[in-house]
Design goal:
A five-stranded mixed barrel has the order 3-5-4-6-8. Strands 1-2 form a two-stranded antiparallel sheet. It is mostly beta strands and 427 residues long. A hairpin with a 6-residue loop joins strand 1 and strand 2. It is rod-shaped. It starts with 148 loop residues before the first strand and ends with a strand. Among the domains are: 65 residues, no CATH class; 129 residues, Beta Barrel (Virus Head Decoration Protein, Chain: A). The chain contains two helices and twelve strands. Helices cover 2% and strands 16% of the residues.
Length: 427
């Protein structure tokens, strides 16, 4: 039986009231193991409620155990709300400020909402219920360009990247009325003076996961070091993997931007392997060799007919090339690249994917149509145009061959017609 019993049925009246000008209003002490100093029970409301106008609503201290221990079977063990500050704030000099453990759900769950009115708790007199919940970050005040954001357009639709948030995040937390649906809130904020602000560890699953329907999934910023740092010891997987899974999307999987003219947007210490096309708007500078797997130096031309790779081409009307059809033609321009197992190494004047334009080899190795009926072709013979459309032949008349030479045969052709490798050298 309790030594002191306070009972009342009057609304908003305490069963027990303790007041003090210089010490605790109510103090409970218990020497029994695992028994609380003060116990509050309520089947339908708070078991213990603490309120203060200028200091802690509830102050809990312990030398060897938890300062506050909260347990719930079906709801939140500890639930914190704040009008102008942190809902829950944890600090520690030697270990974690806040620890969250869960066997079946999130150890720590944080949520930020700026579209719903304040409905929690019994408000203080100075709190305006028409105001919306506080938020951390800048508001998107402009319909096209976000305040505190930048727009970039890599030949695609607009996308936005937020600036780094100022370091004094607590000073930015204020009760104000944002435009409905346009605020930027942060569900969880982790801060540290010298250690990790947020640490996630997992043996076989994702250590830290960020998901967002319309904002940034994971955001990292730093004043003097890397905004995000990724390291892996895996033999096969990458330290950072980026995917754009929208098959119709035009945005990049990775976007990097460097302000100013000093430094670079991307730096790779090691090789770079690309399986797709590379488009460069600026200059390309190489300190060492540029190695191309292709065999010839070609340039795109407008083709007047349905000429195929390996065809000998001559200058035609206007800016078009035509298939050769005369012997010793000084209008010879080159051979259409891409026949056999040779491909162009460099293509100039690549304007579009227009099928009327084709690369013509001007220098280098290319497979060329040849006709040995005008004379057997041996390795090293000079070749010129022939009367057979699109075919080369052995140049036997030095005077007529001047200015009409295609190049040298790299392989012979004793009779008939066929494709032979040729070293293109127009002269």
């Amino acid at each position: 039986m309790a030594n002191l019993i306070g009972t009342t049925n009057a609304p908003d009246t305490a069963g027990v009231l303790g007041e003090s000008e210089k010490y605790a209003g109510v103090k409970g002490v218990s020497a029994a193991p695992d028994q609380p100093g003060v116990a509050g029970a309520n089947p339908a409301g708070p078991g213990v409620s603490g309120e203060s106008a200028t200091s802690y609503g509830v102050l809990a201290k312990s030398r060897e155990s938890a300062g506050v221990f909260a347990e719930s079977v079906k709801s939140t063990g500890v639930y914190g709300h704040s009008y102008e500050g942190f809902g829950v704030h944890g600090e520690s000099t030697k270990t974690s400020g806040v620890v969250g453990v869960s066997r079946a759900w999130f150890g720590v769950y944080g949520e930020s909402k700026d579209q719903e009115p304040i409905v929690f708790g019994q408000p203080f007199d100075k709190v305006d219920l028409n105001m919306e919940m506080h938020h951390l970050g800048a508001l998107l005040d402009d319909d096209s360009i976000a305040k505190g954001a930048e727009e970039f357009d890599p030949n695609a639709g607009p996308a936005y990247r937020l600036h780094a948030l100022p370091p004094q995040a607590q000073q930015l937390m204020m009760l104000k009325q944002p435009k409905r649906g346009r605020g930027i809130g942060i569900g969880v904020v982790g801060k540290s003076g010298t250690g990790r602000g947020v640490l996630g560890e997992s043996v076989s699953n994702t250590a830290v996961e960020g998901n967002s329907k319309s904002g940034i999934g994971v955001y990292g910023s730093s004043e003097s070091f890397e905004g995000m740092h990724a390291v892996t010891n895996s033999l096969r997987t990458a330290a950072i993997a980026a995917y754009n899974d929208n098959p119709f999307g035009t945005g990049a999987a990775i976007y990097a931007r460097k302000a100013g003219h000093e430094g670079v947007a991307g730096f790779f210490e090691g090789g770079v392997f690309v399986t797709g096309d590379v488009h460069v708007r600026g200059n390309i500078t190489a300190d060492r060799d540029i190695c191309c797997m292709g065999a010839d130096f070609a340039e795109d031309f407008n083709i007047a007919d349905e000429a195929e790779p390996g065809t000998v081409m001559i200058l035609g009307e206007g800016d078009h090339l035509e298939t050769s059809n005369a012997a010793y033609d000084t209008r010879v321009a080159g051979v259409i690249s891409g026949a056999g197992n040779y491909r162009p190494g460099i293509i100039l004047d690549k304007q579009s994917a227009d099928k009327t334009r084709k690369p013509v080899a001007l220098v280098g190795k290319v497979f060329c149509k040849a006709d040995a009926r005008y004379g057997p072709i041996a390795k090293g013979d000079l070749l010129t145009t022939s009367a057979t459309p699109g075919h080369a032949m052995k140049a036997v008349d030095p005077l007529r061959a001047f200015g009409a030479v295609i190049g040298k045969a790299l392989q012979g052709l004793s009779d008939g017609q066929g494709l032979i490798p040729v070293l293109v050298a127009l002269r």
